[in-house]
Amino acid sequence: MIWRFTLRRLAVGLVQLSVLIVAVFFLIRLLPADPVARFVGMNASPEAYALAEQSLGLDLPVTRQFEAFLFGEGNDGGGLFRGELGTSWVTGSSVNQEIRQYLPVTLELITLSFLIAVGLGVPIGVLGAVNPGGAADKGTLVYGLFAGSQPEFSWGIIFIFVFFVVLGIAPGPLGRLSPLTDPPDFVTGAITIDALLAGRVDIFLEALWYLSLPILTLSFVLSGPIIKMVRENVAQTMNADFMFYGQAAGLPRGVLARDALRAAFAPALTLIGILFGFMIGGAVLIESIFSISGLGQYAIRSILAFDYPAIQGVVLTISALTLLIYLAIDVCQALLDPRVSV
Amino acid sequence: MRLTLAYDRCVIFMAFALAACGPSQPNDAESNSLIYITNDVPAGLDYDGAASTVPNSQEGIVNLMDPLIDYAPGGANEEGVGLLNFTSFEGRLAESWSFDDATLTWTFNLRRGVLSCAGNELTADDVVYTFARAKSVSGPAPTGWFLASVASVESFDATVLADENKRSLGSEVTKVDDYTVQIRQSTHNQLFLPALTTFAIRIFDSVEAKKHATESDPWSHDYINNVTAPAFGPYCVERWDKGNEFVLRANPNYYRGAPNVERVVFKRVPQSSNRFIILRMEQADITKGLTPREFIKLKEYDQLQVVGVTGNESLFVHMNFDSPPFDQVKVRQAVAAALPYSWIIKNGYIGQAQIWNGLVPSSYPGGKSTFHDSPEGLDVARRKLVEAGYPDGRGLEVYEDALRLSYPIEKEATLGPIATAVRTALRDIGMPVELDPIPLTQYGDRQLVKKDLPFALNDQEKPIVVDAGYAVQLFFVSSEAGAVNNMINYRNPRVDDLWTEARAERDTERRYNLVTEIYQHLSNDVVWLPVVEYRTQWAARQGLQGFIWYPDNGIRFADLSYAQ
Amino acid sequence: MSNTGNRDESAAFGVLAWIGVGIVSCAVFLAIFSPWLIPYDPTQATENVSMPPPPLSAWPSLFWQTIANGSPTPHWFGTDASGLDVFSRTIEATRTDLIIALSANIVSVIIGVSLGVISGYFRNIWTETLLRTADLLQSFPVFITAMILVALAGRSWVNIVLAMSLLYAPIYLRLTRTEVLALRERSFIEAARALGKTELGIARHHILPNAIGPSLIQFSVTIGFAILLTAGLSFVGAGVRPPTPEWGSMIATGATQLVLGDWWPSLFPGIAISVTVFGFAVCGHVLEKRYGR
Fold this sequence. Notes:
Chain A is mostly helical. Chain A has 15 helices and no strands. The N and C termini of chain A lie close together (9 Å).
């Protein structure tokens, strides 16, 4: 049953992905500029332009370009079907390699932020819900509404100003490590994990230290919707019939809260999944404020440079990941509540 | 230098009580290491590669590769920044050189015992390889070929681009012996030596470069774009994490003596305000590209210094001759009269700029380019608009698209306020101007390739060959006469003729006069509207000294040292 | 106060609700009447660059002088690096941000709800396709999409509205569809069907009015998010065209001044956006408690 559902969902996902690929490719071909001017630079003679255009493959008709994008140019072993996203026009490096480098940075940042936001948000939300109407509940509600409606870039700037400039107790917006520290060998790309793999606790601590302000900012903003949602769902399930039976049966409150939490789990999962998917592309503001070279920064750079292969790569990666997350949510929902998969 | 964690500075920080430990302040004076924060690290190191037009990449290239010759020192300015003498040259990889007038042939005697980062010795083969590589035009941006053609190196002309059979090196560049090389010109051209000092046509270590050649990439573009540019310069690449960090280590074999600063860490910090606070909190040693206000503010701190020079950076207004109403000289003059010059200097550049009275940087030799003497004011501007047939701007509404003032979105911090002030002033005289910040790439595409940018602020044209005549050839002769960057579609047969004459002129003074005459025409026609020349500045830790300004505005870290 | 069976609604909740309603009314008032309220042209550069606001203690006397003696209005919130009056811009930006947020939501609601009714009521391959397309649109990274759209079609608020509608329409679609799925099995629909009404007629006259509720509640919350997103887009350079007053672009340009000690160009729009979005969030919450299931 669940397998059939998963397989069907997966098939739909594949169709979606193909539509995505076509849409992204042709959308980008509509852009009003190409980076050839950047290449020829001060020598914008028509001959130089033609040569540069040729070296990018932009002289070919769009359909041929699409073919090359899918199957590679000649027998170069490239092409999307072989998992190659092409070569960046700005850096000359492979887009796969670049995404492999930037994606873990963003994933690390938002995963850590979500861990904090969920780790704090769930107990606080439950606290609010189990004492309805109390001071804790009201505080939780107001905090949840407030934090959930804050512009993270504004707070990021304020945090840098207060904690780094005025108080001097936080690191500057220098990315993930001090520029003087040699990063650990690249394994996963997430610096905290790589540091631990290399057995370097000092680098691990340093990375956490450098990431502390961006994580603080993100988890502050993310905690809002999470707290609000946990509070409401737990409160709702506490009102549900089975809880009244439990209360009548004299079960301790802790046990009740645990049951309520379990019942509130499914909507929480959906919310966190959607937020997470959104943040893969949405962390860009925090990345640029804190000089973190993540996927969002890479995307911005690529768009500003009209670097078609890189833009395609980033959009496909983020969208595919997000679709994957939605798929995972659907499958989990189906597991938790078999009615969904009908 | 290894960072030590200062446990005494540990603070309990953030609600989840992570005991985070801040690294101690790096003391670079002792370790001879230096952190340079920059808006971006090099994206490539191949001057024929896609990244070569980006100043950050050029800055990487000039620290790794040395030229045959360079400009001789030319004293220092009031802030102690070293200047160059643009009419006098001295040897770098070449020890001496001579020119044979009859055959138009230059003979370069190479320095002996020059070792590259890989430990290979410099020979004539390296020079020949460099020119052959340039002529192959195998990279997407064949800058080496372009500058050789600007210098009139024989057979490095436009036919190379069109015809695949003309891309191999002939006898124009020949090895005489291991340490002697000859280069032949096709015609007299005073741009030859200046062209050799630029970031392109710097000499490769051919032995090392060839090791990384492949069948599909015989000129090792991949390797040079992604690993290092093998050469004889003062630094070698230690680590390169594109889009994040670029680390240089001193070349121990450097022929001019190992650099004082042993290790340079380029760290990407895209926002200028972030660079400002990082330097202010002394977590880095040097930066550039701050806003004028940030530079002024940094001067307040005793432990920091700000030095600079009025070099070749300037701001002008670009008005396209093919986009009405800018085809009318009266409209261009109205804009010229209406611009809020003093506002721009006082509030846009906080006094770090001066009125620009020319079309080439005032520091460049080779011709005088006088322009307006003083701003004329809004009344004159209104009168000019009446004369043009648009009293109080009536009739200009139809040119809505042309009246969009573009500027690169990446420069919002400095150009944003200036654009707002320009918009205000022009709306005052009735011109319905709107602002349109666009990405630099799109700006370049429209400026250089499509040439359809009607109205723009431009603060980035720096003729890399230091010569007033070169600017004419680059920007102002008609496209038919060979201008490659005539972004405003200006056509004046008289200017074309004068330049043809000046270009081949062997007498320096006569050439100077011809070029000066050209600039008079350009000034009368208001081709560009020069606004200000602004200072090129660096902010650094106190004690760092030895700054020299080069026309590419790249820092040569080998020049720097810490005061004892 | 409301009585919805939730135990946590108490008198204190009323206070919160009033705060929310107050903020939103204030914002709407400012947006409508801003041209008559602002003392300076919000886009005209002046000589008074980066002027700090007058100290709070001087406000009453300055206010009196302005009214009584007709002396020039002080820059209550200071001026920015272009010499623009931050007070006037912060007020005028209410209009810009609300118009964009409202338009994006109205467009999204119209598209989302109608498609939601259709996809919930008729369940076939087409509506399934519709649903999966909505997934797809939502999976697009919004900042990147918006930047591409702006590069494609230039900076204008229409493009921003379009980019945001791509993100928000699927939200309304889903909400409506869930509601419709529950409704279509209800007895009054069966009754309508038994009376021989056409499927389309049922969808329009019986399903739509009953299924639109959750979307209207969501509307208030999403407007807040749309304001945040508009500001975020300005931050990555895909927002409105400068010098149009807009909170996000004011914060973005003001942020560069913060490190120089000029806190006012970014603080006041920052407070404005925080408070406004909070107001909309509270209203959304109140509506949900009152009329939600």
